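Handout, page 2. Input:
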Amino acid sequence: MADRMNDFRIDKLNLDMECIRQAELYKEYSDNLASAVFNRDKCKEELAVLKAEVDSEIRADPSEYGFESTRPTETAIINTVIQDSRVVKKMEEYLETCYQVNTLEGSKWAMEQKKTALELIVKLYVSGYWADPHVSKTDGEQFEKKVVDAESVKELESNPRMKRRQKNG
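Output:
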């Protein structure tokens, strides 16, 4: 299960490999889901057949199932069928296959979410989201003008070292 969790993680430093691998993973999870759905449906049919067989056995020989004096009612037969150990075992098997289908449907949905996340991350990358900040020269000059106020400029201009520097420079 821990290995499967890595299938849902995105390595932002290897987006190209993640995008390439995404289709393969989606196919794998889709195939696994299709197989699980097939097994669930097959198990459901086997359960229906088994219930019918047990129902027929009860009707053929009710005394073997505890119906001694009277003919069993439909409700009594249905209740006896669902309590039969073979039916209980097959029902547990069916419920397990349903659980597997539900888990794989969740995994397939997670793969779709990963695809969407990859698309968004790639768009962010292309738009320069992770790029180093860049300030144009004009923006930088405007920023400097706003930061340096008039009093600071006057103070610097009156500084003797600054006056010498302006003469020499």
